[in-house]
Amino acid sequence: MSKGTEDIDHIRLVASVLVGNPHDDDALSEAMQIVSTGDGSVLFDALRDQIGPCAENYELMRRIMSFLEAVMDVKPGLSAYLMGRLYPLADRMHVNDVYEAIELWMFHSDKVAVADALAALGAEPVRPLLRRRYQEWADAIRKRALQKSS
């Protein structure tokens, strides 16, 4: 999706506020809106730039994951979406502890918002194997959420 300079600047501003305070309600709401309008990849890139402009790959992946774990406490859907974006990068860069931590978060999640976020991510242009993984996670999470509510 082609974004105008003002839109990208706004997304960068939201990312900057979130990095400063991962529990900022206004910034979290803005971030959710950005993802829902199909600009989640732009938000992820902006967060990555804000979190680790000088970090090496391993350290950058760890910093992003720590940030996303803080966000998971207040906006699990947003965090899951962004973890889904981080997942293939952690794999490609062989940052196994981050890769496995994301899998553990998804394995233990029972929140419908997480399943919805993963299903939305799977509907975006992603590789078929990733799409399948996101859908598997979403299905398992929905099942756990249903079991928890009954």
Descriptive labels:
8 helices; 150 residues; mainly alpha; 0% strand
Task: Please explain how this structure is put together.
The chain is mainly alpha-helical. It has one domain. It contains eight helices and no strands. Helix 1 (5-20) packs across helix 3 (40-51) and helix 4 (57-72) packs antiparallel against helix 5. The radius of gyration is 15 Å and the shape is globular. The mean pLDDT is 92.
Note the gap between the termini: 41 Å
SS element count, helices? 8
Number of domains: 1
Strand % is under 5%
The sequence of SSEs as H and E is: HHHHHHHH
Residue-averaged pLDDT: 92
Helix content range of the residues, please?
A: over 70%
> How many DSSP-defined strands?
0
Note poorly predicted spans: none
| Overall morphology | globular
Characterize the main sheet. Answer: none
The radius of gyration over CA amounts to: 15 Å
Structural class: mainly alpha
SSE diagram, text form:
Elements lengths: L4 H16 L4 H12 L3 H12 L5 H16 L3 H17 L3 H13 L3 H12 L4 H22 L1
Short structural description:
With 150 residues, the protein is mainly alpha-helical.
